[in-house]
Each structure stands twice: as structure tokens, then as C-alpha cells.
């Protein structure tokens, strides 16, 4: 087992398709973890906001949300190992009158991003759905339970209905063809 000492408290770790493993620190720096020589390289890209917390990744796109009342969310693309570009940044929770805290970011197979936020005033948790490239909101839904939900979430990738329909049609065509012989 490898042990890597990181010089700042890190609240999220993500792995990108290009093989990079990144830790996002409380100091807003991205650290690329190198398991060959057990080091954490501070990258030359600093995150937005004041307290990066929850992060998620899909492909070479990753997102992070801040634990503050504006819920600053940022989507970043890794163009190569050690190279990053800001795709989109915005305050997800800025217009909400209650005391909201960003908790986690995840991605679905449909290209959408999901953010989990806690409403400390009303003791509720909400799941926001958005397009990370345009920052357009699709939905805001309450998650049953209290705001004591854990700080992370997992997106389970399942086949979309159209893919399952095509598989079913193909199997039925094969069965018909086999019966015809």
C-alpha cells in the first residue's frame, strides 16, 4: 500500500480518464497524486470559491462544489496530465434565501451533472441536476430524509431505455430467425 502525504487538508479525490488522480485541498489547490514516487504535485490551477469540498469526475471533466452559502460550483477539464481549463463556474445556491451548503458533485451517463446541497435552515437535502457545459438547470428535487446525509454520493450508470430496447429487438429478431430455419 502506498502512502502519500498531502500538505493541505483534502476533502475530495477524483480519478480522470487520462489516469490522473487529483486531490482537491482546502487551500483550493489541485494536487496530482503520483503513486510511483509517493508524492503530491501541486498543480498550477487554483479552484474558485473559498472552501472546495465535494468533487466528482467523468472522463476528463471534473466538478467541485464549495461548502459555503453560495454553493460555488466549478467544472474543469483536464486537457492533458497536469493541464486544466475552466469549463464553467457559477454560484449554484446564491439565490436561495436559506442557509445552503454544497456537499457533493456527481455525473450521469446522460452528460448531466448532479450536485447535492444541504438546507440547514429547513433541515432538508436537495439534488440539483444541470448541464455542466451550459450551467442550465434541469431540476431541483428534495431528497427524503434530513440534512444529515453523508457528504458524498455515487451515480450508478445503468443502460438507458433506448439501448435496452435495441438489445431486446435484436434478440427477438435472432429468435424469429432461428425459428424460421
Write structural notes for this entry:
The chain has 181 residues and is mainly beta. The chain has one domain (51-180). Helix content is 11%, strand content 47%. A hairpin with a 5-residue loop joins strand 1 and strand 2. The mean pLDDT is 79.
Which characteristics define this entry?
single chain; 181 residues; mainly beta; 4-stranded antiparallel beta sheet; 11% helix; globular
Strand content: over 45%
User: Regarding quaternary structure, how should these chains be classified?
Assistant: single chain
Determine the fraction of residues in helical runs and give it as a percent range: 10-25%
Instruction: Tell me about the largest β-sheet.
Output: 4 strands, antiparallel
- The rounded distance between the terminal residues' Cα atoms is 58 Å
Return the average pLDDT rounded to an integer.
79
The helix count comes to 1
- Strand and helix order: EEEEEEEEEEEEH
Q: Which structural class fits the helix and strand makeup?
A: mainly beta
Low-pLDDT parts are none
Radius of gyration: 20 Å
**Which of globular, elongated, flat, extended, rod-shaped describes the shape?**
globular
The count of strands amounts to 12
Domain module tally? 1
Strand order of the largest sheet: 1-2-3-4
Amino acid at each position: 500500500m502506498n502512502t502519500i502525504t498531502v500538505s493541505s487538508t483534502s476533502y475530495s479525490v477524483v480519478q480522470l480518464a487520462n489516469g490522473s488522480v487529483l486531490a482537491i485541498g482546502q487551500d483550493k489547490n489541485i494536487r496530482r497524486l503520483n503513486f510511483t514516487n509517493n508524492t503530491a504535485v501541486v498543480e498550477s490551477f487554483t479552484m474558485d470559491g473559498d472552501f472546495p469540498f465535494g468533487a466528482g469526475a467523468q472522463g476528463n471533466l471534473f466538478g467541485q462544489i464549495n461548502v459555503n452559502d453560495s454553493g460555488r460550483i466549478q467544472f474543469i477539464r483536464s486537457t492533458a496530465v497536469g493541464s486544466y481549463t475552466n469549463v464553467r463556474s457559477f454560484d449554484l445556491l446564491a439565490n436561495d434565501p436559506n442557509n445552503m451548503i454544497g456537499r457533493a458533485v456527481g455525473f450521469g451517463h446522460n452528460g448531466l451533472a448532479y450536485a447535492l446541497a444541504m438546507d440547514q435552515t429547513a433541515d432538508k437535502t436537495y439534488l440539483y441536476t444541470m448541464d455542466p457545459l451550459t450551467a442550465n438547470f434541469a431540476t431541483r428535487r428534495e431528497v427524503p430524509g434530513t440534512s444529515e446525509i453523508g457528504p458524498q454520493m455515487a451515480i450508478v450508470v445503468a443502460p438507458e431505455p433506448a439501448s435496452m430496447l435495441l438489445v431486446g429487438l435484436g434478440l427477438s429478431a435472432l429468435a424469429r430467425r432461428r425459428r424460421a430455419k
